[in-house]
Each structure stands twice: as structure tokens, then as C-alpha cells.
Design brief:
- A hairpin with a 5-residue loop joins β8 and β9.
- The strands form four sheets. A six-stranded parallel sheet has the order 1-4-13-16-19-22, with no helix packed on it. Strands 2-11-14-17-20-23 form a six-stranded parallel sheet, with no helix packed on it. It has a six-stranded antiparallel sheet with strand order 5-10-7-8-9-6, with no helix packed on it.
- The chain is mainly β.
- The protein is about 0% helix and about 40% strand.
Amino acid sequence: HGKLIIGSETCPLHSPITFTFVATKAEIGWFSNGIMVQGTGAMDAYGTRSDITWTRLSATARRGSKYLTLQDSADWGVGEEIVVTTSIWRDLEDNQNEVRRIAAVSHDGRVLVLDKSLNHSHYGGEEYQCEVGLLTRSILFRGWENGYADNYGGHTMAIGPQTKYRLVAVKAQRMGQRNVVARYPFHQHLMGDVVGGRSFYHQLACQDCYYRCAVIHQTNGTLLRKSVAFNVTAHTYYLEEGVEMNNRIEFNLAAYIHPIGRPAKGGAQTGEELV
């Protein structure tokens, strides 16, 4: 029922801040290793927005090059981390997605110089182009590195028809708990109608997450926009029951997404894999 407030709509947080979730799998309880907001509580986190969270190449980036030419003028900075997606067909068999840091940016924001040369070529032709997504956010929620082997990270959840849950430019890394129901990096849970801005997701990033990214469960009228997910297991932008209505899910990027296998509840009774 309390409040966690990080920045605001008019005064977003520009200096980086990191929250680390450190519980181990042996400490599993009803709500272990997470943040729950309920009742009249609120979780507002406003990081630094970008005009562009992802775009596409305007020309092929060749193996060995340190340069990316973008279709849009990106307001990204030196030192920020990006992902360049693969242009091969099956990246789960041959992962050619590449994460790099920005070493320099052209004056118009359309050319990036990378900290390291590319190991693979990334196509940017007339018929399709590889995406380039910004992974850095000023607010970071991350799971403890020692939980990596157990696929056991932190999670956040807002529950109930009065709760406020507004996330802007927030990143999750090593978050979610593999195949544990309701243990997702970001989770709108039984919030009812949130029209009017009581709850929304804007410009999230999820990287190396164990179970989904942003989940909308029995919540109507929310917004999920301009987010980037990379190297995530299971449905990434997820309507949990299919009864959710009037939600806007638009201009989000998901890359290098892994099947979950047998889900925690229901389905896959004959052993088939589901995302």
C-alpha cells in the first residue's frame, strides 16, 4: 500500500540508478524477490526518454565494420548500449545478434561508431532492414548474477483497481522467474480499467530476462509502447488471459526470443513446446 516514486512526468531521472534483487531460489516464498504494489499504493518510475528507442539500418553493416547508418536520427549518447539484430533466418540456431556500445555519434544522429567491430554482417536493403535497438535506460532493475544458473531473478507487480503503476524508460535485466506464474519483470495484474493514465508502460527495455517482459493481465485501457526486448524467454509482450480490452500495444521491438518449453500451467500436455 506504500509508494515507490522515482522521478516524475515533469522531472524524469537522468542520473542512473540500479536496484538489484538478490534472493536465491532456496528462499522462494509467496512473493519472494519482488516488488508488489497493491491497494492504494503506487509505483512510478520515470527515466530519461529518448525520441527513438529503435530504428532500422539504412545500409548494410558489413562484418568487420564499426559503423551503423540508421534510417532515423537517434538521440543516443556515447557509452550507451545497443543491439543490432540478425539478418539470418533462425537466430536460435546461429545467434548473430550483436550487442555493442556507442563510441561516437554523427551530428545528425544517423551514423553510429561502435566500440568494437561487428562479427557478422547485418542487412539493410530495399526489401527489409535489420533493427537497431537502444538497451540503456537510466533506471535499471536487475537480478543478482548468482541467480543466473537458476533462471531466478526479481520481478515487479501492481495488483488491484486502485493501484498506480507507471513505468517510463525503465530497464529489466536478469529479471523474471522461469516458468513461475506471475513472476515477470513488469506485471499489470487484475487492475481493471486504467484509462486516464493510472497505469502504462513506455520505453521499457528487457535484456537477458528469464520469463517474459511486460505482462497485461485483466487490465484494460493501458499503453505498451516503444519498448525493446532482447534475449528473453517466453511471450515478451503478453496478454495473459485474452480477456484484456482496449489496450494499445504499438511500436515495440522483440529480438532473440526463446521458447519456454512446457508451461507452468495448462497446454503442452503432449510435450510440444510453446512460447
